[in-house]
Amino acid sequence: MDFYGGLLAPIWNPTLKSFIGTDLVWMMLLVSLFGLVVNVVQPLAGLLLPRRELPILLIVPPVLAGVMALLGLSHSAGVTVFIVVAAAIAIALFHPEGMLASHAVSGRFESIGVPVFISGGFFGMSCGNLLAGWWAQHFGLYRFWLLFAVGAFTALVMVWMGLHKLSGHADETVVQSRQHAV
Predict the structure, then answer these.
(1) C-alpha–C-alpha distance, residues 109 and 91, integer Å
(2) Which sign, positive or negative, has the C-alpha torsion 165, 171, 172, 178?
(3) Which of 23, 83, 110, 124 is the most exposed place for a label (fewest CB within 10 A)?
(4) Radius of gyration of the chain (CA)
């Protein structure tokens, strides 16, 4: 997921800026918009969605976040904004469910599940930065859409692992007993 967030950072200047014909201020607003959307939608998704047990949110958002790879097909500022906002929403929807799932599958190593999940996000973003920077250096945005395959592959791996069937939610009695202990 965070791989796609990492794609935006190294290509906004000069590659994307010259590709869609905008200025530096507009590109900085675009990068800021991405961060704002993720950071507004993510807590809202955490508040509204996890109690409904929607492990499908582990499978669908990686594919939807792949729209970020379509930046190479965008030739207008409006389409670029749409792509960036759509990817940001998908990334934000994944994280609350992913956090619950990482806790659920960590079993007796529950103290490591969430840190590995968080580190995986930073690793993914770093890989996105590296790959997008390399791609932009060598190809510009030509065939950038091929990076969509990363999200599709991630979703397939999660289905293969059975995560789409996972109930990633803490037992309510455990949550209540922890609240009373505090």
Answers:
(1) 26
(2) negative
(3) 23
(4) 18
